[in-house]
Design goal:
CATH topology of the largest domain: Nucleotidyltransferase, domain 5
Order of helices and strands: HEEEEEHEEEHEHEHEEEHEHEEHHEHEHH
Largest sheet: 5 strands, mixed
Shape: flat
Radius of gyration: 21 Å
Strand content: 25-35%
CATH architecture of the largest domain: 2-Layer Sandwich
Number of helices: 12
Structural class: alpha+beta
CATH superfamily of the largest domain: ATPase, nucleotide binding domain
C-alpha cells in the first residue's frame, strides 16, 4: 500500500522543481504541466495573496506601497515559509483542477548543499500545502536523470545544473553522488550584475526584470558570430528623468563575466576532486549542462574552452530537474535509491 499510488496510472503524485526563479511541476502520466515564476504578490496590510506566478512577476518593481511582490525562495532554499506554503498550495491545486481534497505524494528537488534543517523546512512546507508524503531529491541527481544520463552505471557522469539562485556541480556514479558542490551563483546574480553594470557605465537605473530580458536577448558567455545590441530604458541616475541608451552583447559579457567564471571554477574544482577512474569516463562522455542558465548563449563553448572537455546542453534544460524528479515518481527502485524520505 505504501507505494500504491505511485504504481497507479491515475495517481495524483507530482514532482516539483522548487526553484529560486521558477517553479515547475511534473504530474505522473502527463509530464511537466506547470512552469511559473516563483513570485507571490501580497497586500502588505492584510497579508492577502493577490497574485502568484507570471501575474505576480509582472508586478515586480511596479507595485504601490501597500502591495509587495515577494520571491519566497532565495539561493535555492526557503526564505519565507508562509509564502512558500501558499505558493505550493496554489500550484498543487492548479495542476489538480482546483480540487482541494487531493493529497498527493510529492518529490521535491533541493540544492545539494542544503542543510537538514533546510530540507525539513521544504518538507514541512509541502505537507502544510497538502502533500501526504514528501521525498527530497538533490537537484543535480534529478537533473542527471532528466538529462537521460546512465546514473546507475559504474561510470562517471558530470552534471552542471545552473538555476536562478544556485549552480550545482556533481559527479554521479552507481545512482549516487560521488562529489558535489553548490555555489550561490546563477541567473539571478547575472541579472544583478547587469543592473550594476548599466548603473555604473551608463548612469541608468533599471529593474531586475529589465536586466533579465536584456540577458535573454543578447546575453552571452562567448563571442557570437554576429554582434548584437539592445535598447535599454530606465531612469537617469543623475537627472532622475527617463533615459534611453543602447548596450552591446560585449558589454553584457563583461557584466556577467564574474558569475560565469565562478561557475567554471566550480567545474574545475569538481574535476580536480573526481577519482581518476571516473575522470576518464568524463573525458569520454563530456560535461552536461542543465537548468535555465544553460540557455545562456555560448556558455557551452566558454566552458569547453576553459576546461578542455566536450560540453553538451541537454534537451530542454529548463525542465530537466522537473522531468528527472518526475521519472523518479514513475520508477519505484529509483525512488528508493535517490531520494531522502
Amino acid at each position: 500500500m505504501f507505494f500504491s499510488s505511485i504504481l497507479n496510472p491515475f495517481s495524483h503524485d507530482i514532482a516539483i522543481d522548487l526553484g529560486t526563479a521558477n517553479t515547475l511541476i511534473y504530474v505522473k502520466g502527463k509530464g511537466v504541466v506547470c512552469s511559473e515564476p516563483s513570485v507571490v504578490a501580497i497586500n502588505r496590510d492584510t497579508k492577502e495573496v493577490l497574485a502568484i506566478g507570471s501575474e505576480a512577476k509582472s508586478m515586480l518593481g511596479r507595485t504601490p506601497a501597500n502591495i509587495i511582490a515577494i520571491r519566497p525562495m532565495r539561493d535555492g532554499v526557503i526564505a519565507d515559509f508562509e509564502i512558500t506554503e501558499k505558493m505550493l498550495r496554489f500550484y498543487i491545486q492548479k495542476v489538480h483542477n482546483r480540487r482541494s481534497m487531493v493529497r498527493p505524494r510529492i518529490v521535491i528537488s533541493v540544492p545539494s548543499g542544503v542543510t537538514q534543517v533546510e530540507k525539513r523546512a521544504v518538507k514541512d512546507s509541502a505537507i502544510q500545502a497538502g502533500a501526504r508524503e514528501v521525498y527530497i531529491i538533490e537537484e543535480p541527481m534529478a537533473a542527471a536523470i532528466g538529462a537521460g544520463l546512465p546514473i546507475q552505471d559504474p561510470a562517471g557522469n558530470l552534471i552542471v545544473d545552473i538555476g536562478g539562485g544556485t549552480t550545482e556541480v556533481a559527479v554521479i556514479s552507481l545512482s549516487g553522488i560521488v562529489y558535489s558542490t553548490s555555489i550561490r551563483v546563477g541567473g539571478d546574480e547575472m541579472d544583478e550584475a547587469i543592473v550594476e553594470y548599466i548603473r555604473n557605465k551608463h548612469n541608468i537605473l533599471i529593474g531586475i526584470s529589465s536586466a533579465e530580458n536584456i540577458k535573454i536577448k543578447i546575453g552571452s558567455a562567448f563571442p557570437m558570430d554576429q554582434e548584437m545590441s539592445v535598447e535599454i530604458k530606465g531612469r537617469d541616475r543623475v537627472e532622475g528623468i527617463p533615459k534611453i541608451a543602447e548596450i552591446s552583447d560585449k558589454e553584457i559579457r563583461e557584466a556577467i563575466s564574474k558569475a560565469v567564471d565562478a561557475i567554471i571554477n566550480a567545474i574545475k574544482s569538481a574535476l580536480e576532486k573526481t577519482p581518476p577512474e571516473l575522470s576518464a569516463d568524463i573525458v569520454d562522455r563530456g560535461i552536461v549542462l542543465a537548468g535555465g542558465g544553460a540557455l545562456l548563449k555560448g556558455l557551452d563553448k566558454k566552458i569547453s574552452k576553459e576546461v578542455g572537455l566536450p560540453v553538451i546542453v541537454t534537451e530542454d534544460p529548463l525542465t530537466a530537474v522537473a522531468r528527472g524528479a518526475g521519472k523518479v515518481i514513475d520508477e519505484l527502485k529509483v525512488l528508493k535509491k535517490v531520494t531522502d524520505e
